């Protein structure tokens, strides 16, 4: 099992959030799904970049792109980064994105921004990452594994 750090953290800069996520990326050695919750500008994409870097993926290649919803990048493991912000949401639309196939692909790490849009599309055993803006550059970052 991967020894992924879980718990409640406070970061005081984007770099600290990046580093926290980097340590998680580094610790991953088996398939895992991360659901990143938090408002616009909370730091979800910063977190995704750090996690990707921990998988040996160039952070510049991990973005929230304007026209793509799913990005695939290969590092030490394959990373799928999804930003569901622009979809209306619901299980049908998520199926159309091929998320069930992505989740069935062996050896992959999946990071999803705006998991609220998943609707009834359930993902068991995912890590829930909750980022809250505490004002200024402070963020609380809660990481826990769903049962
Ligand atoms: P999201 O993907 O949640 O919409 P982004 O990761 O794209 O948010 O942007 C977060 C913004 O907040 C960036 O401009 C980043 O530099 C800034 N920021 C300031 N402090 C922090 C922090 N502690 N953690 C993460 N981002 C921070
Ligand atoms: Mg984002």
Overview of this structure, please?
This protein is of the alpha/beta class. The chain is 25% helix and 31% strand. It has helices at 14-27, 44-54, 91-96, 99-104, and strands spanning 7-11, 32-37, 70-74, 78-83, 108-113, 127-135, 138-145. A 7-stranded mixed β-sheet has the order 1-7-6-2-5-4-3, covered by helices on one side. The longest helix has 14 residues, at 14-27. It is globular, with a radius of gyration of 14 Å. The protein binds adenosine-5'-diphosphate and magnesium ion (MG). Magnesium ion (MG) is lined by residues 44-45, 64, 83, 113.
Q: Which cofactors or ions or other ligands sit in this model? A: adenosine-5'-diphosphate, magnesium ion
Q: Helical segment tally?
A: 4
Largest sheet: 7 strands, mixed
Strand order of the largest sheet: 1-7-6-2-5-4-3
Q: End-to-end span in angstroms?
A: 15 Å
Shape designation? globular
**Helix/sheet category:** alpha/beta
Radius of gyration: 14 Å
Give the topology, please.
Blueprint: E1 7-11, H1 14-27, E2 32-37, H2 44-54, E3 70-74, E4 78-83, H3 91-96, H4 99-104, E5 108-113, E6 127-135, E7 138-145
Parallel strand pairs: 2-5, 2-6, 4-5
Antiparallel strand pairs: 1-7, 3-4, 6-7
Helix pairs in contact: 1-2
Adenosine-5'-diphosphate (ADP) binds next to helix 1 and helix 2.
């Amino acid at each position: 099992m991967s020894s992924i750090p879980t718990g409640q953290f406070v970061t005081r800069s984007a770099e600290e959030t990046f580093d926290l996520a980097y340590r998680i990326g580094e610790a991953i050695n088996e398939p895992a799904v991360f659901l990143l919750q938090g408002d616009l500008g909370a730091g979800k994409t910063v977190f995704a970049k750090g996690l990707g870097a921990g998988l040996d993926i160039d952070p510049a290649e991990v973005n929230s792109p304007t026209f793509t919803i799913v990005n695939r990048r290969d590092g030490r493991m394959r990373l799928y980064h999804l930003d569901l912000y622009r979809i209306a949401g619901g299980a049908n639309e998520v199926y159309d994105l091929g998320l069930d196939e992505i989740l069935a692909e062996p050896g992959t790490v999946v990071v999803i921004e705006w998991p609220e849009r998943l609707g009834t599309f359930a993902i068991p055993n995912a890590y829930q990452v909750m980022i809250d803006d505490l004002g200024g550059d402070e963020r609380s970052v809660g990481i826990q594994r769903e049962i």
